[in-house]
């Protein structure tokens, strides 16, 4: 008679192991997804390899964190770039003047020009030489987005060009005079040059660096881009230790959240509940759990009728029913059959065992309710009065 609970516990062990495995997999999957999204956003976003536009006497600021970036590499095969490294943000107080001239063939009803990097406070003056009949239908532009302006209000990439509104192509010579604001580089901590084609700066952990990328005043126009733009390749080499640490932090945070929500239990989380059972009407929780567990308590015995021994049949039936009622009393634990039921499981609410047996179930590998086979989070004790 005592084999039934043991067989039931063994049959539910695989189910409990499967539920715990699914819970562990879900706990690991979320931080992996978060880590992948963070890695992709940094690798191909803010700290992704980029192709930056510059210009004569350009001074471009880049803020880099050594927590996520280990090295910065600058490549340019045609001009001598200089990379300055600062521990604090430098001031934008210096000024330089330079002039460039471009020979442009502008098709009808189109715009043509080139891009420059300009800092806040810079000024631009444009002058072009073309045929006299076409000058009245030419417009000079300095474009950032949808706005045309000559006074630079913020650091950004600006398009300088000419819009041809004539019905025929024109040939002109565009002269641009720029009064550019540049950063003060006299207090730089490190200086690197790309005279050999590239330069690499190693960042010390865990500092934040301000990098200033400057171009020479006389840029070789023959080595410009096909549209008259001058670019430089900048690569950020990531620090993989930081990404592994971010992954571990995500796992810890999600584990703590699941623990606070009841996904993991410990011995101190088992609360005690006192229920008054002196009345004939029992508590709703106890009565409902008893009704649910009732099918497990009853065993039907088929007794063949014997018309010759009616009295023996009645006596045997009485003895069988008495022993069955004593053994399968609804107030006894379904595991040990010695102690009364004095606890219930959370979240299913079934009351089928005594508190020591319930503790053994929770502390074991198969943390499932012996009634409904749901995963058990906690055990609460019932004090009968």
TrEMBL record:
Pfam families: APD1-4_M, APD1-4_N, zf-C3HC4_3. Coiled coil: none annotated. Residues 299-323 are annotated as: Disordered. Residues 333-373 form the RING-type domain. GO terms for biological process: protein ubiquitination. The keyword Zinc-finger applies. The keyword Zinc-finger applies. One of its GO terms (molecular function) is ubiquitin protein ligase activity. SMART domains: RING (SM00184). Keywords: Membrane, Metal-binding, Transmembrane, Transmembrane helix, Zinc, Zinc-finger. The chain crosses the membrane at residues 25-47, 240-258. This is E3 ubiquitin-protein ligase APD1-like isoform X2. The lineage of its organism: Eukaryota, Viridiplantae, Streptophyta, Embryophyta, Tracheophyta.
